[in-house]
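Ticket #4471: structure export looks truncated?
Reporter: QA, pipeline team
Priority: medium

Steps to reproduce: submit the single chain below to the structure queue and open the exported record.
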Amino acid sequence: MRKYPKLGNTKYRTLDKWFSVFIRLRDSDANGQTICITCQKVTQFDRVDAGHFMTRNNISTRFNEKNVHGQCRNCNSFKGGESIAHGIRIVERYGQSELDLLVFKSKSMMKLMPFEVKEMSKEYRIKARALFAEKSDWFKEMYKNIVR
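Actual output as written to the record:
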């Protein structure tokens, strides 16, 4: 019987995991409360996605920390990412020039080599673990498996 390959790109799976954990930890307080970048609703860490302003299809901005923010699942999944509200918040945080730069970068072609993906995975694993160490004891006990 013929086996079919799994759907989806596995090349970035580990990097996506650690980058997402890093973003969600970066954007949450000591107890794991995160303010959604788009609707401003306070949401618990495990109910937040790493929402991208410029879509994940653009490798040149996929792992850009200024392009990705904690976003509630309602906005990220059911409302298509709320890119207009996300863009407004990026301008508020970083300025119009950063938004323009993200849009410009998203139109450029980029390919990450396997060694770059591996190094970036290590870098974001280290960053995520450092942020995890700063969280409250309650948070650490509740989410102890997130940084393994």
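Status: closed, not a bug. The export was complete when the record was re-opened. Leaving a note from the reviewer for reference: Residues 4-8 have pLDDT under 50 and may be disordered.
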